[in-house]
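User: Thanks for the earlier help. One more: Permease. Can you show the sequence and predicted structure together?

Assistant: Of course, both are below.
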Amino acid sequence: MRPETNTRTEILAGISTFLATMYIIVVNPAILSQAGLPFSGVLTATVLLSFFCSLMMGLYARNPLVVAPGMGLNAFFTFTAVKGMGLTPDVALGAVFWAGILFLLLSLLNVRSAIVRIIPLPLRYAVSAGIGLFITLIGFENAKFIVANPATLVGIARFNDPIVLTFVFGLLLTAVLVVRNVPGAIIIGIVLTTLAAWPIGRYWGDSSAVNFGLKTLVNVQGIVAAPDFSLVGKLDLVGSLKWSLWPVIFAFAFTDLFDSLSTFVGVAEAGGLQDDNGQPRNLNRSLLTDAVATTLAGVFGTSPGTAYIESAVGIAQGGRTGLTAIVAGCCFLPFLFLSPLLSMIPAIATAPALVLVGAFMIKPVTRIDWSQLDDALPAFLALVLIPFSYSITQGLIWGFLSWTVIKVAVGKSRDVPPGLWLVDAFCVLALTAGH
């Protein structure tokens, strides 16, 4: 163990990291259940993936990073792959598995540097921020804060609705907790918003809010249950290998890869976790762990796993070794048995978390040079089309294609990496296939 840390510090850092990331236990099932997957089954898959892969990150990669189903990737699974393209959940899980295999092969062959060069940095920043806006839109929609409006397409809900008022309360409360750096701010916000939503379901009878009584709260059998393993092994490995689904597999794999690389670089900078060459420490092993997480995600029954940028919370507490990730991973296990209790959490309670996660993800736009229009315009299209088209795929497609067309048209074809032409071909195939 490094001299600047000790066992007590690592344990406390692991607990802090868990508190910063445990919201995924509730938020991930809330999103994937909209794709037709059972809440309890996704919860079990989320906990299993977070436990095993955080342990692998700690024991094998020796980095203080939590691994769990990624925000943005779960939105892609639900709203693009299943709802947008009409894939069945089983086929979508199969696509996640094959994306993991592709990611694993790329990591084993050590071609990550070539892959990174394919996608221009401005597009990577824009896609990350665009996914954040997409998640924010989902949060507002789940809370019925943004609603359909025939005159303007979308609009703000009326503020005499108890659900909207409860959401606003939860959003502002959670935001204050986050700004004040309260440990576990997001999960505290979810719990308090759930409690605030209880009168809505109890007295107004709205099924979109929580409706539990005192007997449920005090009855242990009502809040504890055996894990739901119904999604384990339910992936469709053959159906997901159709040629038309390769753009989905590609999107899962490369979004996960870039998300992972961004996390490793950012966390390494924050915690001084670089090797002698200035690269993130144990990068190869960390990427292999992420690839395994995505592969196992398809097997367990959830969207792809990835390293969490919230791991920086534990690093700020002094975590420097794999013990931090091991402790954080073990903290997930007790929640295997709490699916009945956690399933009572309504959409308006997780909606503030989604909105704020979007705020965290918007930061990369500051790295885009907006005065360089041949870079900025493709990045802008990718950024806005992800939420506006309700499709991460469409944002990726038009970002890639517009980058190539604009660069060639202004005489900067050298700025189009050779591999991007292959990506563009996949994009055209996806558009002609009607996706």
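User: Great, one quick takeaway?

Assistant: Residues 7-432 form one domain.
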